[in-house]
Amino acid sequence: NAGVTQTPKFQVLKTGQSMTLQCAQDMNHEYMSWYRQDPGMGLRLIHYSVGAGITDQGEVPNGYNVSRSTTEDFPLRLLSAAPSQTSVYFCASSKHFLLQGGSNQPQHFGDGTRLSIL
Amino acid sequence: GQNIDQPTEMTATEGAIVQINCTYQTSGFNGLFWYQQHAGEAPTFLSYNVLDGLEEKGRFSSFLSRSKGYSYLLLKELQMKDSASYLCAVRGDSNYQLIWGAGTKLIIKP
Fold first, then answer.
1. Which of B5, B15, B41, B88 has the highest local Cβ count within 10 Å?
2. pLDDT at position A95
3. Mean pLDDT calculated for residue range A86-115
4. Do B96 and A48 touch (CB under 8 A)?
5. Taking residues B92-102, what's their average pLDDT?
6. Average pLDDT of A9-24?
7. Contact by Cβ (8 Å): B58, B47
8. How far is B56 from chain A (nearest CA, A)?
9. Quick one: pLDDT at residue A100?
């Protein structure tokens, strides 16, 4: 059972570079999301998607783009990396809390991508 | 604004009981989650509360009081492997997204 797979696990970028963090899930989950986790702060939502072709902004979307062409994949793109984007990034998926008739659907997380911007 | 508060760090002894508190102020309430996160790893789901009262799952229990905006996670018979951060998250009304606390780092001493 693969669950949620994120690649790469570690990445170092220079300021101004762009890159894509990959996320794939094999649980047929409708809902997928990207978070960043910084010391002393809660997980902050960057972007999310409730199904293929549908994406929306979270709390901290600036500097990031997403797309959802398939149910399985939800890549996160950094357009022009900045030192403030140094963080640990987590992708998560779940059954849709509304479609499944309840809000109790837990999110399943990938192992994270540790990103450093120099 | 929306806010979730948890203690930053707690220390407990192996074999003992510890209670980790979480207070929240959110726009609406559609359930509260507890997650465990070991250092360098992903968060994993522990429990969910949407009605007032206690939910028990083995050594772990979670309590909710919606009128007080308060929850706690109770860990019994502590083991060294319980050393981790414990994250509280509330599903509010704003697009039903989860709002996360900063987490409580639990240190277990022998």
1. B88
2. 87
3. 87
4. no
5. 84
6. 97
7. no
8. 16
9. 59
Distance separating alpha carbons of residues A93 and A110, to the nearest angstrom: 9
Question: What six digits make up the tokens of B52?
Answer: 């007032």
Asked if residue B34 lies in contact with residue B103, where contact means CB atoms within 8 angstroms, the answer is: no
Structure tokens at B95: 């697009």
Largest pairwise CA distance in chain B? 44
Give the type of residue at B69.
G
Residues A34 and B55: their CA atoms lie apart, in Å, by 29
On the question of pLDDT at A46 being above 80, the answer is yes
A104, A111, A114: best to mutate for the B interface, most B CBs within 10 A? A104
CB pair distance less than 8 Å for B103 and A106? no
Q: What is the spatial distance between Cα A72 and Cα A22, in angstroms, rounded to a whole number?
A: 11
Above 80 in pLDDT, residue A103?
Answer: no
